[in-house]
Amino acid sequence: MPRLKDKYQNEVIPQLKEALNCDNVMKLPRLSKIVVNIGIGEAITNSKALDAAVADLTAITGQKPITIKSSKSIAQFKLRKGDTVGVKVTLRGDRMWIFLDKLVSIVLPRIREFNGVSNRAWDGRGNYTLGMKDQTVFPEIEFDKVDKVRGLEICINTTATTDEEGRQLLTKLGMPFSKD
After folding, report:
1. For position 95, what pLDDT does the model report?
2. Which candidate in 23, 47, 85, 97 could, as Cys together with 5 as Cys, close a disulfide (CB 3.0–4.6 Å)?
3. How far apart are the first and last CA of the chain?
């Protein structure tokens, strides 16, 4: 069993029961999935960018990503319907817990001048989105082999109904929120 999942079951559930005044364990917020995606608009002109992004995302998550296709044509961006514009991975189960544990305990502390993640990236329904400026903070990425620094987006989906419930869940799981 992943370390963070064990912590959730043994420490976080009792704390959430007390904090949210809830007797029913099934009503407590929990993680449902984590979606990690990289947008690669340059894949239209550079086919190697797609391969590099797929390799990076596979190394980071341990799962092969799917490609995201454009749904419509946009002439200003030289984009046609059906062109590849990104790659994404949806993590569930043990891989989700392992990824979140790695994110909280290894990746975020490696960011230079890190003061915590923003408190304003909630969607109103208890889900949190974290944007990262480069993929090189992940330990699986070898800095020498990176062709271009790409940003990525991490969406943490919970079963929480409000942002406050989701914030309490992620805080108790170790997510370092900033003081602002």
Report:
1. 94
2. 97
3. 35
